[in-house]
Amino acid sequence: MKRMIKLVCLAMGLLMLLTACSTGTKTALDPKNPVSITLWHYYVGDNKIALETAADTFNKSVGSEKGVVINTVAKGSIAELEKAVTDSAKGVINAEAMPELFSCYPDKALEINALGKLCDLNVYLSEEEKALYVEEFLNDGLFDGDQLLVLPIVKSTELLYVNETAWNKFVLEGGGDANKLNTWEGVYEASRDYYKWTDNLTPETIWDGKSMVGIDSVANYVIIGNKQLGVEVIDGENQQMVLNREVMKKVFDTYYGAMSLGYFNAVGKFRSDDIKAGDLVAYVGSSSGAAYFPTWIEKDNTQAPIDFLALSYPVFEGGNPDAIQQGAGMSIANSTPEKQEGAAVFLKWFTSEARNIEFAMTTGYLPVQTAAYENADFKASLGNMRAGGAAQKNIAAVYDIALNQIMERDTYASLPFNGSYEVRTILEKSLEAMGESGRQNAATLKAQGLSEDEILAQLDLNAQFEEWLSTIRSQLDELGISYTEI
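Given the sequence above, the corresponding structure tokens read:
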């Protein structure tokens, strides 16, 4: 009897090994009985169309041959997608079933993996296949040294986008200095100069100048600003947040001061919208957003064409020229062996050199395989874009700057830990709230006719900085996230 029990246990154990994602055992797909794979993503517009087109091409070719059907489902914004995935993984009441494949950032992958819901992609990629990817991109999805939970699909960095038409007018008539756009301190000064120039155009009214610069991702601004100045504010190695007072003060003063006085601004949902409305001249945003930079602005109820300029990401004075490396990859959920393998087949096809170039070039992202950058089709596509319409020329200009930034400068992606996603949210929301509060308080002081120095003195940047740190500490304590202050 004991021998029979042992044999049954052994058989059950063997069955578990054969069906588990981490064993390396692949179940043969059957074209006669295709598996249906649901892919959740956050792409919109041209990006959404490009993904749907790619999935359709796959389904009619490799998918048909292997027995895999990919069904793409847009889940809205990245925040909406991540909430849907999290609810599914946690089994929240009325949540949708977990998708077999979904767009995912590393910090979210770590959280979902802690629930036992993710597949280790090492099972499906050989060492030779992994060697095809840009090492820094692939490493972004590695955890605990060897678990590959996120496969890179496309990547991006952040750049400074400029309405060159408005900027050139400022240079000619207002003394704008392009050299100031290399550093954050210089960007602050240039924005102040622009505000004062536009303010002086209507001398009868004080403090009615125009804002110059916006920031798409305030979290990235804080994270990469810290990194440029030698601090990893999200310290994945030690599972904590690092509050370096000196560095955080420099990052805070630049943003808070500029937002309060109106030198920086954020009006619409996206900073590209602010460019189109004429509310901004420049903004810092993802290199993948080049296609959304307007080719005209609304002026006097008419469309006025504008030229486009892309510049490298600004660096804090004395800092290292680090720039963000970002972009969601895709993760495979633990499901059945057939579906896991089917999802992996699609991912390898989708990120193959030729296919990935097509998707990346359509969406303005960077390909993830090393050989893509020397690919003749990639170079030919760039050439065609340079000779194309205004929007295509914008994308080509961004590729030139982004590729140089990725290849020549230090790109950085913070190492996530449990809670790092919440840290990003805290950094973003708390600093945005401080900036908005400063703007409202400054508006009252402007109405009193105070000077810039008097307004900044009244705002008391030191006190506001302490309030910001206090807010961060309070929220970290509430969530049980560790931090150190130096």
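The chain has two domains: 33-155+327-374, 158-324+410-485. Try to locate this feature in the token string yourself.
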